[in-house]
Amino acid sequence: RKEVEQDPGPFNVPEGATVAFNCTYSNSASQSFFWYRQDCRKEPKLLMSVYSSGNEDGRFTAQLNRASQYISLLIRDSKLSDSATYLCVVSRGSGNTGKLIFGQGTTLQVKP
Amino acid sequence: DGGITQSPKYLFRKEGQNVTLSCEQNLNHDAMYWYRQDPGQGLRLIYYSQIVNDFQKGDIAEGYSVSREKKESFPLTVTSAQKNPTAFYLCASSIPAGRTDTQYFGPGTRLTVL
Q1: CA spacing 20 to 30 A to B9: which of A38, A42, A48, A54?
Q2: Residues of B in contact with A99 (CB under 8 A)
Q3: pLDDT tens digits for A65-95?
Q4: Mutating which of A35, A43, A46 best tests the B interface, going by the most B Cβ atoms within 10 A?
Q5: What share of chain A is helix, strand, coil (3-state, %, to 5)?
């Protein structure tokens, strides 16, 4: 089993649609959670951190379910510019190593 | 402007050659990381350093070497012992040392072995 699993997609949606990505992780000791965005042939960039209570940033909402070891990202009112690969990222464990585990990413294609 | 720079952007290497990828940051970050990304795969950790003059192997360190003589710099050498070096190499940094915190990435170096 992969440490961080994502549905690779691609998700093809029309502009204005709402789309949700899911991610599961295997290490119950993980403490930090993130969503990164990666454009084609570019470096990953932080989209948002994920907090236990859930958090929202504009059209983006992230949720964490520690009991199920499940993270989600919801994008509302999709824009063409949202087309990218979204990486689910989880810390290695409770130790303070600074090490992260990256999922393989979910590709989103927003169409006019 | 603060940030992370990597050079070169593209690098071509003949089999049997060692090459060194540059990574410099002016964010005053303590920790620095090297990752490798292959098509359709997640990032895999090669080496990381939490403080100057100290570094640790990541998950796929074989065939690679690093140094951390200055806080700002964390060069990666891809040696001839690395069997499949063609990949996208990403350097990242974070603060503070010893904590899991947000990592910021440089623009990457695409290495192709001819």
Answers
A1: A48
A2: 33, 45, 48, 58, 100
A3: 999 999 999 999 999 999 999 999 998 876 5
A4: A43
A5: 5, 50, 45
